[in-house]
Amino acid sequence: MSDATVDYRPMWQALGLDLEAHDMLLTAIPQLYADAYLSQSDRPEGMAYFDFVLSEIHGLRIKELQDHKAAGGTVIGTFCLYVPEEIIRALGGLAVGLCAGAEWAYDQVEQLLPRNTCALIKSAMGFKMGKVCPYVESADLVIGETTCDGKKKAYELFGELAPVYVMELPQMKRPQDMSLWRSELDRLVTELERVSGRTLTLEALQKATKEVNDKRRALQRLNAARAARPAPISGKDALLAVQVAFYDDVPRFTQMVNRIADELEQRVAAGKGVAPCAAPRVLVTGSPMSLPNWKVHDLVEKAGGVVVAEELCTGARYYEKLVAEDASTVEGLLDDIATKYLDINCACFTPNPGRIDDVLRLAGQYKADGILHYALQFCAPYQIEATTVERAAREAGIPVLRVDTDYSMEDVGQLGTRIEAFLEMLQG
Ligand code: BJ8
């Protein structure tokens, strides 16, 4: 995962990484990536950018973060879609997603957290405790949020290992919840002003809002092309683009994704796809899939299906909604940011009818033949809400497969068999 011609080890050492353990991580990921990604045929040429980003994700990108800090900026770690990147950027911060998608140092983690904690939380804690994540080690501040009980409580322990600030996220969407949420944005501004030593200005917030909106617009374009039959890009590649959106330089990412979108639009016009027209089309919905978690997409696509959309935080929930750009005061723009973010439909909210609407709408828009509901084991919000999603989808006549899994590879054989049977049923 790094340019062999550049020696990043002094940088990793200065960040306090456990170099031996980190070497093991850097040896494992490229093989997994090659097996899942580089083995695909007919990939869009623009995906070469993402191959490069992945190869440098612990190298060049970390160097960029250090350069940014040396020039007076900050690096802010986040774990949730509700944390507004616009405010972080407007105060000279670079936001980096810290959710992790691989098992690491679970032996240490399980001394702090119960074994039956979701893989996302255990993994994030494991990357920190195992000292293998240069992103968390670069962070001047980690922003948590009161979403699910697991994360909420884990932040208390995480705060013993890194500087953590927790936003209070309401669990309902009534007017009084919006007032609370809006006041939380003011608290966040104060905290980020403290950490950065800067003052929030309208100009900086407008610029950051436009940049982040442009990133989302580029992802909207890329994903809109997936509605075509045949699909012009694999689900795995589209998932990767959103996963990388949480780490990459914003303007560069936007430019590269727009380039891929141009290519996909040409492919659609030419009727060129990555899977046959008859390949069963699957919408995936549920818990987030953080890098390098592409397990379910890989299984679906190796079994002959194609994932055409994700109702996930690493999918449509991330890029579909934009912040209104016309406010002329800081307060007004913060109101618009609050509105956009509270409109995300996470299963941590109750009730959460917007997610059901989103799932059905996306299934129609992307011509999905079936829905795969993916939940991490011990993720109560998504595991329980799966019942509501399944009921609504069946009423709409859309077949559903429920998959509860984790980051291990132990269930791959059994999952593969279930997915193959589901795809056969969709074709029959
Ligand atoms: S907006 S989905 S990123 S809270 S998988 S830790 S919910 S037990 S990550 Fe999430 Fe924000 Fe919602 Fe998205 Fe808990 Fe479930 Fe684990 Fe989860």
Brief overview:
The chain is of the alpha/beta class.
Structure characterization notes:
The chain is α/β, with parallel strands linked by helices. It has a domain at 9-196: 3-Layer(aba) Sandwich (Rossmann fold). Helix content is 53%, strand content 10%. It contains 19 helices and eight strands. Strands 2-1-3-4 form a four-stranded parallel sheet, with helices on both faces. Strands 6-5-7-8 form a four-stranded parallel sheet, with helices on both faces. β3 (141-145), α9 (149-158) and β4 (164-167) form a beta-alpha-beta unit. α14 (295-302) crosses α19 (412-427). The longest helix is centred in the middle third of the chain and has 23 residues, at 202-224. The termini are far apart. The model has no long low-confidence stretch (mean pLDDT 97). Double cubane cluster binds next to α7, α9 and α18. Double cubane cluster is lined by residues 80-82, 118, 120-121, 147-148, 150-151, 287-288, 313, 344, 346, 348, 376, 379, 381-382.
